[in-house]
Amino acid sequence: MDFKTLTNKTSVTPQITADDMAEIKAAGFRAIICNRPDGEGADQPSFEEIEAAANAAGIKAAYVPVQSGMVQDADVEAFGTALSVLPRPVLAYCRTGTRSATLWSFHESKKRPMPEILAATKAAGYDMNGVARRIANGGKTPTDTGDAQYDVVIVGGGAGGVSIAASLQSRKSNLSIAIIDPADIHYYQPGWTMVGGGIFEASETAKTMGSLIPRGVKWIKSAVAAFEPENNAVILDGCRVVKYDRLVVCPGLKLDWEAVEGLEETLGRNGVTSNYRYDLAPYTWQLVRELKEGRALFTQPPMPIKCAGAPQKAMYLSGDAWFRNGALKNIDIQFMNAGGVLFGVKDYVPALEKYVEKYDATLNFFHNLVAVDGPAKTATFKIAKPDTDPETVTVDFDMMHVCPPQVAPDFIRVSPLADAAGWVDVDQATLRHKSFDNIWSLGDVMNAPNAKTAAAARKQAPTVADNIVADIAGRSPTAAYDGYGSCPLTVERGKIVLAEFGYGGVLKPSFPSFLLDGTKPTRLAWFLKEKMLPPIYWKAMLKGKEWMAKPEKLKVAAE
């Protein structure tokens, strides 16, 4: 493990797991402090899991969660309280250790000279100069100057962020570009449905972030605390400031597990799973293999969510497995959908309804999951049908696949970049911010009315790249995004309904219908999903090769 010593009584470290507890105890630590909120990352163990392992090892544990990049005075006070009551030495952790080091620095600033704090944190590998500036500036981080300056700064190193960096480099190789992202691992999230269906191994969907950042692009391994677009500045964890000429915002969205009462406590056990988390998708397949009879629930929250078809993909692949092993006749499949339709583009619904019939699944519309009791194996839904009074119903289950509610990340929702609903406010054609001309956004975080899929980001990246290069040259936007999104609906093992559509539900097929009719289940579409799309993602999209993704020309209205 990477223990970073600040004093002989306090150390910090990146995210730990329950399996690390023996090493933590052997290193002499008597207590741990968790500074990372549950549900922040796709591969993050819950504090409850960490606390249980700590208690078993005779180590005290405290939970002092701090939103990424959002260290407040109350957080510092809570951290100080934990330090005062826990036995020493203490090990604090978060995603990278930066939040913990920041909390310690603010806490120690009341009694320790700042040069001493800076020396201790620097020796541990953390730059706290931004904290010193914030303290010297009366608690506010100054943004008139910065710690670094780039032509283009990209917030987020997911599908959108890496793709736009590669696309920009292919157009203008001399740009100074930085990607800001604290994650060590980059995930091919469309593959998690296949993991939950027993087709892919989870490890096939993960690569190190460092291996994917384009050569020549600076990777700033940190979380964003705030934006100050009036000063062309991004404030990072540790109160560091990065300045930009142009900014691209694509950090993805937040899976809001805590919005469902009792859900976080039972994920990964009691038959409750989700393909929306890397570590849980294998549990989905385990549950499917083990279930021989009983009720299986599949939930879908209100829109927007990433990959609107994913909740029912889990249902179809599970139903297919039970159909093949003979258990289907003993399993009651219930699809609990907060919306009022099976799929938002009507052309694909007839094919999907045939599979609903095949698996004898019951469709329950306007059912929104609000609470889960894992040990009791019950789920509570709020039913809000049009023109009727809302009611709640509690349903027993033996297995439940949950699609969590989804919102914009906290640091986006509170920023000047957000619309009233919390999403980055862009023009849906150019993807340029409506209020700040040198800011663009793509991927799940922005508010254009398109499907939130990796395929959408594949089309958006070239559009944004073209428009940024045009802006650098002093020209107006040249490229338009047409709302394209793709949702390969895995209706059975070996067949997929390949939904491709743009704004307004207009069909946008990539292939002629005689070759592949996306409204019908086909083996060719399955071949694309299983064999072709993963290498296209890793070796083309993330490398700036824009196969079948050239942007449309922007139509300029006549004056």
UniProtKB/TrEMBL annotation:
Pfam families: BLH_phosphatase, Pyr_redox_2. It comes from the Bacteria. Its cofactor is FAD. GO terms for molecular function: FAD binding; hydrolase activity; quinone binding; sulfide:quinone oxidoreductase activity. Keywords: FAD, Flavoprotein, Oxidoreductase, Quinone, Transit peptide. The keyword Flavoprotein applies. SUPFAM superfamilies: FAD/NAD(P)-binding domain. Residues 150-267 form the FAD/NAD(P)-binding domain. The keyword Transit peptide applies. Gene3D superfamilies: FAD/NAD(P)-binding domain, Protein tyrosine phosphatase superfamily. GO terms for biological process: sulfide oxidation, using sulfide:quinone oxidoreductase. Residues 2-107 form the Beta-lactamase hydrolase-like protein phosphatase-like domain. NCBIfam families: TIGR01244 family sulfur transferase. This is Uncharacterized protein. It comes from Roseobacter denitrificans (strain ATCC 33942 / OCh 114). The lineage of its organism: Bacteria, Pseudomonadati, Pseudomonadota, Alphaproteobacteria, Rhodobacterales.
